[in-house]
Design goal:
The protein is mostly helical. The chain is 75% helix and 0% strand. The chain has a domain at 42-108. The protein has helices at residues 8-15, 18-50, 58-77, 88-107. The relative contact order is 0.14.
Length: 108
């Protein structure tokens, strides 16, 4: 009989007992949602840079304060040149996706 393909997390969970399986599913979802929230906040910050938003808005300030350490790190790594474009959000999104995949593969 041919076994259907199962995602590595689901394959691992199918052999685990119910309590640890539930805990693993919760951990998996927390990791996925956490990385998605950060990625969406970076995308929102990019959109905010294109439009005129009130910098005193609490939500805008929160997004800027939360994403600045991440984007600032990549800005420091990138060489300063004559280009007026900031590629740090793009690089940050790529690195975050790679980190998410790495963490999920290491844990599951």
């Amino acid at each position: 009989m041919i076994r259907p393909y199962l995602h590595p997390v689901k394959r691992h969970l199918s052999s685990a007992n119910s309590v640890s399986g539930v805990n693993l599913v919760v951990l998996y979802q927390i990791i996925r949602v956490g990385f998605q929230v950060i990625q969406w906040m970076i995308i929102a910050r990019v959109i905010f840079s294109w439009v005129n938003v009130n910098p005193n808005n609490q939500a805008v300030r929160f997004i800027y304060e939360f994403t600045e350490p991440i984007l600032g790190f990549f800005r420091r790594l990138m060489p300063r040149g004559a280009m007026p474009l900031d590629f740090s959000p793009l690089i940050a999104l790529i690195v975050l996706q790679l980190a998410e995949r790495f963490i999920i593969r290491m844990l599951f």
